[in-house]
Amino acid sequence: MSYKGVPAVEKNHAQGNKYHFAECTTLEEMRASGKYEHRYSANNNPDGHFEIFDNKGNNAKNIALMPCQNCLKHINYQGFADATSNEKRRILDHFSVIDLLSTYSTWFKNMPGIRPKTAGYTADWQDISLAFRRKKKFTCECCGVNLNDQRHLLHAHHINSDKRNNYEHNLKALCIDCHRKEHLHDHMLITCQVPIDHILSF
């Protein structure tokens, strides 16, 4: 799945999600936060190209993605862990999954469950989100800012990243600023005019 959006990744594959081949710190964090099963799916394609999709219904096949740099550090691929910035750039530019598999073995503590491509928001998500935010009085549960006058800037966040798990214990009301600070949510930007008192209250 692409959190930057399929059109953006088609133009620049570096904007896409990274793929993993080792038990790196990123996967450890995902397991600890309960997001591993819903964030990842297994793939045995050795050429580094994948089928991607986003929550807007876009999808594309045979898209080149970049490897996870934490995975490269974990196995110290071609000395990546101690390489300079320029050396790391060179290693990334010439990285090949086939070359990797000729020298290293992939290993994971456990494989993620099968996740369907339709694992986006449910059809009734807009109604659920509005009802939940209304229950929270349009107030961010993290920073406490009240966005009753700018309701579109308060989001209902899925804690475990499973967008089909709309049970209240899996939801959290977050202003867009707090939401974008969640792991892998830094693509969110405030693109509209907001009164300065709301900005300062973040």
Short description:
The protein is α+β, with helices and mostly antiparallel strands and 202 residues long.
Taking the sheet with the most strands, its summary is: 2 strands, antiparallel
- In what range is the share of β-strand residues? 5-15%
Low-confidence blocks of residues: 190-202
- Rounded to an integer, what's the Rg over CA atoms? 19 Å
Report the span from N to C terminus.
Answer: 30 Å
Number of domains: 2
Mean pLDDT: 81
Structural class: alpha+beta
- Numbering strands along the chain, what is their spatial order in the largest sheet? 1-2
Q: Helical stretch count?
A: 9
Q: What is the total tally of β strands?
A: 4
Keywords: Endonuclease, Hydrolase, Nuclease
InterPro entries: HNH_nuc
Domain HNH nuclease: 127-180
GO molecular function: endonuclease activity
